[in-house]
Amino acid sequence: MKNILELILSFGEFSCSYMVLVSQDLKIKWINKALEKQGYRLSSVRDKSCHEVFKETAYCNEFAITEAFNMHRMVKEERNGYKTISFPIKRDNKVDYVLFMSSRLKEEGPVPPNLKSRLDESEKRFYDLALCSGDFVWEVDRNGKYIYASAGVKKIMGYSPKEIVGKSPFYFMPKDEARKIRLIFGKISSLKKPIVDLENSNLRKDGKEIILLTNGVPILDESGSLEGYRGVDKDITEKKKSEQEIKESEEKLKALFNYSRDMYYVLDKERNMTFCSPQSKALLGYTPEYMKKNWSRLGFSGNQARPDKRNTPYLLELLAKNRKKVLLEINEIVLKDGNGKIKDILGIARNITPDKESEDFTIIQRDIGFAFSVSKTLKEAMALFLEKLMSIDEIDCGGIYLVDNEVKELELIHHVGLPASFIKETTSYKFKSSQYRIVMKSQPIFTRYDRLSVRKDNQKKKEGIKAIAVLPITFQDNVIACLNVASHTQEMFSEQTRLVITNLVSQLGEIIVRFNTLDQLEKAKDFSEKIIETAPLFIVGLDVKGDIVLFNNVAEKISGYKKDEVIGKNWFLKFIKEGDKVPVEKVFRSLLESESENTYTNPIIVRDGKELMMNWSNSIIKDDQGNIESVIALGEDITLKLKYEQEREKLTEELKQRVSELERFHNLTVGRELRMIELKKKIKELQARLEVQK
Questions:
Q1: What separation in angstroms does the CA of 414 have from each of 319, 379, 420, 438?
Q2: What is the pLDDT of residue 254?
Q3: Which secondary structure element, helix H or strand E, spans residue 6, and what is its range?
Q4: Is residue 472 a contact partner of residue 440, using CB atoms and an 8 Å limit?
Q5: What span, in angstroms and rounded, lies between the C-alpha atoms of 686 and 688?
Q6: pTM of the predicted model over 0.90
């Protein structure tokens, strides 16, 4: 909000319109230079009531400002020869300020011929900039050179606005990137289309390459000729880096899947095998193609007769191709569609014929892998991981620490088997502590606790730990976390236990990074959903068929319908009355074909049968391949506004009629009085003549 407010105020100094920034208590916080030329001074009017300073002038309208605060929306009107706009400035769904703007509809005296076009362009530029939420706001001329750059360019590109202005955006791109983007932009500008989510590489002033997401709108003159573009650039370098890391992580997990010793398979709802991993060859001696054709003949009947047990592991003994018996442990997960019907069954077959000890460790590894697959957050995944580790006989307590690189500290995120008094002393380890230095050496340690070269206080001695393992967890050669496990009964961990723990920890780095990335993406998704649900507008999303896919809380409140009553229903059949369906659907199809934003006003029918007039702002949403996915419409209920306007027009007409009647009455009354005066005058003259004759 701070960047947007600074942008508004800096732009306002060059505006011909009168601008006043008002806080919630209707106190003046700022006025622009246009008002100072009218005799007002910011130092004199700051923190004073707008009513006290401007009274009934058109420079400030207390009623319109109050409505903008209360209704969380822009208020436009014309009064006393002025066009006025009250624009709410929001933060966290709360209006902190209202910017009141006014400009004359008709100028007294000589009017420059291009004044109106300058005012319209000034107002348009303000709203284009004010509604942008990116970091670097810009404008280029018809030659593609910057004529305006906001202060945000310094943070993103390292250049000041002065260094940017006069240069082309392609000047800051690598040569190959400049050629590619120049062709794309040339095609867009030739069609005078908006720039939508155009990714492009740029070189910062320090030489570092960054990725920007560019959005912009064409600037057209009165004849429709292209004058330039204005828009916003957002730095998405870190986002693209995270996406690449996730992709690489998924590829590694896929490789692990392909080279796993377990056999993975997929069954349809009739239990026909549709996929089998290459591990079937090593496990049973049969190729995946043979397994798919002979699945049921080999004896994989599974839990088909027990649908309530389909997610329960079971044992299955089969004859391999070499006629040897193989004991498999089968885990099957039922995957259902949106209607709760079985879609597929995902199965994992594992050979559990080795000796019991190896079997126990294998099961632990499997359970941990399964725990990761069902976990939604990093903390949940690490809790399940530690829980499974505790099933190893030699281990009875432990904890997982994350490395905070900013403050250089180890922070405990989960622990098992240790009392609160002990945990209180070991919640975190600072940069200079022995524990921190040991972990950052990136070497696993298996030893007796009394041999560990760390400070031993009385509390730790009382805890009675004997064997301990400290295993740094790395990702791309960087220590990102640490696993500590210990035993109160064993003096030292066995070789088998060491091997199992080391193998498990070797995979934890990617798991932790993946969950951290997913947590961040989930937070971003939650934030977007929260904005939609808390926005003070009727928000509805339609797929390309016109079926409803999004319906926010305000939409529920205005329409009277709940989300589950309308999601999946056709918007035009549900909300549009018969006589309006054809023109409204025509506007919808036109929007899909042009792929550009538009506005439209039409009535809808709500649950109680009432008709509401809605003003819509429509936008296109595309998928990763550039295909149109849906249309998002933001609606404002203007029913009462139209009603008030009609009543105001009616009242105005009545007042005019009343004034006309008063004028006629006045004329009749005054005329009669004048005639009486004239008559009295003539009577006096006649009396005077009679006196003379006498």
A1: 44, 7, 12, 20
A2: 63
A3: helix 2-12
A4: yes
A5: 5
A6: no
